[in-house]
Amino acid sequence: MAEIVLEIPPRLDYLAVVRLVVATAASLDPPLPDSRLDDLRLAVTEACSNAIKAHRPEAADQPVVISCHLDEDLFRVQIRDRGPGFDPDALTRLPDPTDPNRLQHEPGLGIPLIKVLSDDVTFEPAGDGTIVSMTLKRPTAPPI
Q1: CA dist., res. 99 & res. 67, Å (int)
Q2: DSSP characters for 8-40?
């Protein structure tokens, strides 16, 4: 298994670099299909945005760490922040995205999007922050 690690300052202007590095890593053999790359880019953007916003001011000199783990079957991205942590099951339930009342709630789509766009996702407390792990299945080689 190969691993690529990227450390960025907790600033939103680094999101384009994160998307580029993660998408490039996911394009390595065997590559994720283009439609799954789009899913990955959006999920990583949401997770990194949340990590940057949650980062504690007193940890401003600590990076947000993004690691990509590549093996033949899976592509996993982990994002670690230095925020206060949270319980994803305790988040306020919002109306379904197709419900017109959802328009009254601008924030709050990030975690549901991450869950829908990933094949598996976990949110783990990490002592001084949170680690979000997203996994996407790599395509299997067609039989010869």
Answers
A1: 36
A2: E-S-GGGHHHHHHHHHHHHTSSSPPPHHHHHHH
| Of 123, 136, 135, residue with least CA distance to 51 | 123
Angstrom distance (rounded) from CA 101 to CA 96: 8
Q: Are 83 and 55 in contact (CB under 8 A)?
A: yes
Per-residue pLDDT band at 13 (split at 50, 70, 90): very high
Give residue for tokens 């999007």.
113
Decide: 18 and 99 in contact? Cβ < 8 Å: no
- Phi, psi values for residue 28, rounded to 5°: -70, 160
Average pLDDT rounded to a whole number, residues 119-135: 93
Question: What is the pTM for the complete model shown?
Answer: 0.86
Place 105 in a pLDDT band, splitting at 50, 70 and 90.
Answer: low
Helices (H) and strands (E) in the chain, counts: 3, 5
Q: Which DSSP string corresponds to 112-144?
A: HHHHHHSSEEEEEE-SSSEEEEEEEEPPPPPP-
